[in-house]
Amino acid sequence: MEDDLPTEYDVIVVGTGMTESIVAAAASRIGKKVLHLDSNEYYGGLWASFNFDGLQKWMEDCRQPAKTSSEESSSSLLKEGESVKKAGNQFSTVFNLEEKWYIMEEVADTPEGQSSSKKTQTEVDEEGKPRAAGDIADASSHGESEKLEREGSNSEKPESGEGKDQGVPPVTKQWSQNKLKKEYRKFNLDLAPKLLFARGSLVELLISSNIARYAEFRSVTRVLTWLDGRLEPVPCSRADVFSTKHVSVVEKRMLMKLLTACVENEDANKEFEGFEDKTFLDYLKSKKLTPNLVHYVLYAIAMATEKTPCLEGVARTQRFLNSLGRYGNTPFLWPMYGSGEIPQCFCRLCAVFGGLYHLKRAAEAVVVGAGGECTGIVSGQQRLDTTHLVMGVGYAPPEFLKTAPSGGLSRGIFVTDRSILPSDKESLTLLQFPPLDGAKEPVTIIEVGPSTNACPSGLYVLHMTCKQQTCAREDLQAVVHNLLHTEFDDGSVTRIATDTQSTQTVSPHKRQSQDGSTLGDVEAGGESTEEAVERTDAVALKPQVLWSLYYNCPETSQCDLSANVPSNVFLCSGPDLDLDFEFAVNQAKDIFTKMYPESEFLPRAPDPEEIVLEGDEAAPGPAFEGESEGKAEESEESAAAAAASAKNGKSEE
Fold first, then answer.
1. Rounded to 5 degrees, what angle do the CA atoms 223, 217, 93 make?
2. Rounded to two decimals, what is the model's pTM?
3. Is residue 326 within 8 Å of 152, Cβ to Cβ?
4. Could you say which architecture CATH assigns to the domain 201-333?
5. 66-103: b or e for each residue (b if 16 or more CB lie within 10 Å)?
6. pLDDT in tens, 457-509
7. CATH number, span 8-98+337-407+559-595
């Protein structure tokens, strides 16, 4: 039976997505009576994060047809002149789900010493010279994650590992489906992976509202781009620009001059006069930049396309540059345990200030009064009245979404055995793959490792997102082909552990020539084929995909969600294409302002030690040693102190 709930509220919020959760927290923070419902048994909706077992259950739910409610059961709860709109629509779930394994279901344990009979290779550079493994830092510690308030350096001390100083690196365990499933609790896989700009609206909101204490973050350590058929690091800071070997001295001067012009752009600046109706690419070409610099600025810094308007490209460049140096060498932060943690932070604040939560409870219908305004919802066998109704698009009646688009986002999640670009320590990577080599749309790629609690030690999770053209697999196929190895691993590949990275080689007795003979027994052109195998396999190896998931999800950020709804009903978009949470934050502010134009949006919440209960102010007793006597002054400066602590001792200016 459904739990009986109070029947009257100031705000009812249906869905626990990002925008809905921010609105719920803001309304509860100013003392409004808030009810927050979600038909799922988890928070976040299409913004959620799951462990591996939870993701399997989510896929099963997506494949099942949505349950429909009966309007007859709601008719008895209506008043004169009221009508109901049945909730739920085609934008409530994902489509084109494709899951695939690239490893065997089970593998036998390899006896000790058996691996010595297999050929092993180490990675070499592009010129064919052996590349030393070196001391590679083990960045798999889960206990050294920093909170936003004390975000700092991502450098981690390398741990000594067995076999580092021995002639042959140790062989890692062979991954199988069953072994990976047993580690399901160590996964945190995002449905909508996003980063935070260090000076973006969400970071400022987390600090000013004091919600930052509910979350932990880690700096993105590198930004990559795909240039001339290979991955290249993007120079983010001034020091990077002048130290990189991939940009000539002349190009460095041109790049610094361009970036300075973008940062100092003001209304009175005539730098962009005449380019208001042209693309950002046209502007870059007018500066006579080299193709190399155009690529860096357009795809890696502005993260734009060839069709991006000039002023929008400038704004994107400014956003990138303004966030540099606040918490790390790149402008981005990644939420520990996944992006799905962020909506839960706002839900927690809402609950702290009296918001009522009920998961696994849906809104079957929206009640519309004779005057055309929403008067409440029907949930279970109850009628719940409200002054304002906030709904995610996945729960809104179809009549409210006549302008919703039919397209969406293409998403891919990949579990791999190594990084796309190995380094001497585990990296948290952002890559904007340009529309090349058959890819029609740019693809945003985020690679996270075990130090973010996204996966078990020794594995990486790769997220790919782009605008939908056909289906997710086809949209991402070209990028996957360039970056990943997707052939089935039948156990013939031996992976050699080099701490956070791994290399692989095919055993000679497993490799066969086209005529069926074993390659180790054949010679060609004076070179033994065993040597040919060694020469062929000793190359920079792509990560082996162990498991993948493709799917498409709706994208409603570009349509007008207020066109067909009552004046006191507000619809919230699901995940959008942009890298950050900017759209969701701005949408939440807009909805809150329409509901309560005279109220402050998410004022700072006090820390627990700052809350004084009635009667406590007169309680006798000495102050604790070191306690400040100026309580009021401490309270007034606490917001500034929280922001200062986020800099981890570094001067922000």
1. 85
2. 0.80
3. no
4. Orthogonal Bundle (1.10)
5. eeebeeeebeebbeeebebbbbbbebbbbebbeeebbb
6. 999 999 999 999 999 999 999 999 999 999 988 776 565 544 444 444 444 33
7. 3.50.50.60
